[in-house]
Design goal:
Order of helices and strands of chain B: HEEHHEHHH
Distance between the termini of chain B: 87 Å
Structural class of chain B: mainly alpha
Number of strands of chain B: 3
CATH architecture of one domain in chain A: 3-Layer(aba) Sandwich
Radius of gyration of chain A: 23 Å
CATH class of one domain in chain A: Alpha Beta
Oligomer: heterodimer
Largest sheet of chain A: 8 strands, mixed
Chain lengths: ~375, ~220
């Protein structure tokens, strides 16, 4: 039914008109329900207004290296080390890295620590307009490489395990294709590899975005544009329904705290350096150069088939940010003999920060990495 | 010049006939209906602006050209800005129409599937679930469509273009006040970025050389 047909339809066909509240309804119970609802709404309002202090990233760590664009965090071991090779986690440039350590019982980092790994994390800082020209080359060949060097030096090892999430996973794969001599294992979570296979709303928008023009006029990708893009992802099931659920569960302290932590992370989005974003959109999403081994970074052409080290690729079947079909081809393009694709029935965030992830994903991931970290 | 005057004249005549962008439609009862077609308005305004751009380009040598150079480029920027703004409006209206149609369609579907009677809280819950599922499906379909993504891309490009023209206009004023402009700062950022890269590469090379040197000394 189009707009005209809808407006010309009889009123009883339209929402909220022509429907009657059943005659059997108990007026007292309705009043009670309304009273309860207003109490919950009032409490929700109070909770949301005072939510700024919600605590995230509780696992103890220290900043071992810091520049203008990143902090290298080293997490304090929780058990005696059982894996010789340290893990360097490369987080994405979208939102903040504390999603990996959101809360004690849903922390990716904490789980790996309790499995006896030594963990480092690259926590990207906010780029300013001065960083407009910072490119993929800088991120991969300067910042990640500097962190890899630091970890190798600090732990007196030749090679490390590189572990990346989302955009960080793509950067990790690119890094391995250029500096494989410094990496023992590559473990990626939801990497963007073959964008032609991507069926997400984000992929659709990316393919029609004039990133060159954006770069020359406003420089960095503003966070407002990212908010607008994110609000088109599951706009009602997640965007609207989650607030109904919050009101319903406002008396459940654990539910409220979980909600607030994720909500804080969802809207904690730094801008992305203009040239990096331009390459991400044009080279990876629009021209699909990465999977074709034609993407150029600095003076190097990225050839993923140069990767021969063990590769673990972890993907989520219900990922609505990076399609599983877009991530899976990593296993086809690398030349590694030891490669594994793990699929899980969850979403992009559920894969790293959920009870499901703690029970089903992390034990398998830890086991795979540990077997190759001695 | 003659060609230009003729062109302006034509435009004025066209404006009279078409009542400046209002298309005149006569229905069966011979009543005159007027509806403004934004496309026609845009075309005519663009034509008008193009003519003024031509006029401003007329003198190409001599003192008049030299003294009017600055103001003419300002006018050109303003004309361009205006044209882009009109484009933006057209794209925005189209995008809004797509959103509105999707909303109406979802609303009518939801009302068809809604419970006929609301006796309890459960009935309201059922309606909420039905409505959210339908709205989700309809809007995800919209955001997934090529048409919507293309329009969204055009709308963003219009905004970037407007920013570019505004920047050009603002930069002129900054130059008059002897203040640094955005493009000058951009050049500096690029230079600093390149220098930092060179320093990074040189530091790495120096480190490697030091290692080789210390190894050869220890031998």
């Amino acid at each position: 039914m189009n707009q005209e047909a809808y407006l010309s339809s009889p009123p009883e066909k339209r929402l909220g008109q022509g429907y009657e509240i059943g005659s059997e309804t108990d007026n007292n119970s309705i009043l009670k329900e309304i009273g309860e609802l207003s109490r919950k709404l009032e409490k929700t309002k109070r909770v949301l207004h005072n939510a700024g202090n919600v605590e995230v990233g509780s696992t103890p760590n220290e900043i071992v290296d810091e520049t203008r664009l990143y902090r290298l965090l080293h997490y304090q071991p929780m058990v005696s080390k059982t894996a010789k090779t340290p893990i360097l986690f490369v987080y994405a440039l979208i939102n903040r890295s504390y999603i990996l350590d959101l809360q004690r019982n849903k922390s990716w980092i904490r789980s790996l620590l309790t499995q006896g790994f030594d963990i480092y994390l690259i926590d990207w800082k906010t780029p300013s307009q001065v960083d407009k020209y910072v490119s993929f080359d800088d991120y991969v060949n300067n910042y990640i490489d500097d962190c890899v060097e630091f970890v190798r030096r600090k732990n007196s090892v030749d090679k490390i395990t590189l572990h990346g999430y989302c955009m960080g996973a793509t950067m990790s794969a690119i890094y391995c294709s250029l500096h494989e001599d410094k990496v023992k294992n590559l473990a990626t979570i939801a990497p963007v590899i073959d964008s032609e296979q991507d069926t997400t709303v984000l992929g659709n928008f990316s393919k029609h975005l004039e990133a060159d023009r954006m770069f020359s006029s406003i420089g960095n990708l503003p966070q407002e544009l990212l908010y607008a893009l994110f609000s088109t992802l599951k706009p009602f099931k997640q965007g609207v329904n989650k607030y109904f659920n919050l009101v319903e569960n406002i008396d459940n302290e654990e539910f409220v705290q979980n909600f607030l932590r994720v909500e804080k992370w969802l809207y904690d989005t730094p801008p992305i350096a203009g040239e990096t974003f331009r390459q991400w959109i044009v080279d990876i999403y629009q021209k699909n150069l990465l999977v074709a081994n034609e993407m150029k970074i600095g003076h190097n052409i990225i050839d993923l088939s140069k990767i021969r080290i063990p590769v673990l690729n972890i993907i989520a079947e219900e990922d609505h940010l990076v399609s599983p079909q877009c991530s899976a081809p990593l296993n086809d393009v690398v030349s590694s003999r030891d490669k594994r694709l793990m699929r899980f029935h969850t979403g992009h965030v559920g894969l790293i920060a959920s009870s499901y992830s703690q029970n089903n994903v992390l034990p398998k991931v830890g086991q795979w990495i540990k077997a190759r970290s001695q | 010049m003659w060609r230009l005057l003729k062109k302006m004249n034509q435009m004025v005549i066209q404006g009279d006939v078409d009542s400046n962008g209002e298309s005149i439609i006569k229905d069966k009862s011979d009543k005159t209906q007027r509806s403004v077609d934004p496309q026609i308005v845009t075309e005519q305004v663009t034509q008008f602006l193009n003519i003024w751009s031509d006029i401003s380009k007329l003198p190409t040598v001599g003192p008049f050209f030299a003294y009017s150079q600055s103001s003419r480029s300002d006018f050109r920027e303003i004309f361009e800005l205006w044209k882009i703004f009109l484009d933006f409006q057209v794209h925005f209206n189209e995008l809004w129409l797509q959103i509105n149609n999707t909303y109406t369609h979802a609303l009518s579907k939801a009302s068809e599937k809604a419970p006929k009677e609301y006796n309890s809280k459960k009935d309201f819950e059922i309606y909420r679930k039905v409505a959210i599922d339908i709205f989700e499906e309809e809007f995800t379909g919209l955001f997934d469509s090529k048409e919507y993504a293309t329009l969204n891309g055009l709308l963003l490009s219009n905004q970037y273009d407007m920013v570019l023209h505004l920047q050009k206009l603002a930069e002129k004023q900054l130059k008059i006040l002897n203040l640094p402009t955005r493009s000058e700062l951009d050049h500096l950022s690029k230079d600093i970025h390149d220098l930092k890269k060179n320093v990074h590469d040189l530091t790495l090379k120096l480190g490697a050389l030091e290692k080789i040197e210390s190894r050869s000394l220890s031998k």
